């Protein structure tokens, strides 16, 4: 069977008709790809990071986080990835939160590698996101309780591998934000 390449507009129009309402679908080189649904550990990282970011951004004059927002990384053929969290500093606050696909480039993206298919494609996804213009990509792996941070610098890409005992800091666009890596993986008391 011949696969016809989809544009981002066609993909977004048909996404709701895809399995599971397209919730775990992405567009890779014009072809819809279906990721495994994330596990509970994925949700734990999103919850914990959301709480830390809410506290930080509440005390700042600008900046915000958007969740499961599409990043239109390539055209003809189109590629759209949906990382867990995108952090924005410029423009009006919360400007991107109602969009299906971002109209601007976030400073930081968090991609959680919680399922085998996400872990297998992690390096490729991070490279694509950095090439798109994102300053820093965090790859959280709940299974290993590690965070890999790749940041664009004048000299290329710097990579920091953090164990749960280390601190996430030096975050582009987020001066003063410090998060203990282990705090990302802690199961909330209420869910035990």
Question: What report would you give on this structure?
Answer:
The protein is built from five helices and twelve strands. With 192 residues, the chain is of the alpha+beta class. The chain has one domain: Alpha-Beta Complex (tt1808, chain A). It has a six-stranded mixed beta sheet, with helices on both faces. A two-stranded antiparallel sheet has the order 1-2. Strand 1 and strand 2 (31-34) form a beta hairpin. The chain starts with 7 loop residues before the first helix and ends in an 8-residue tail after the last helix. The model has no long low-confidence stretch (mean pLDDT 91).
CATH topology group? tt1808, chain A
Unreliable segments of 5+ consecutive residues: none
The total count of helices amounts to 5
Which sequence of SSEs, written as H and E, runs from N to C?
HEEHEEEEEHHEEEEEH
Largest sheet: 6 strands, mixed
Query: Which CATH class?
Result: Alpha Beta
Q: By helix and strand content, what is the structural category?
A: alpha+beta
**From the coordinates shown, what is the CATH architecture?**
Alpha-Beta Complex
Q: What shape does the CA trace take? A: globular
Task: Write down the Rg.
Answer: 16 Å
Total discrete domains? 1
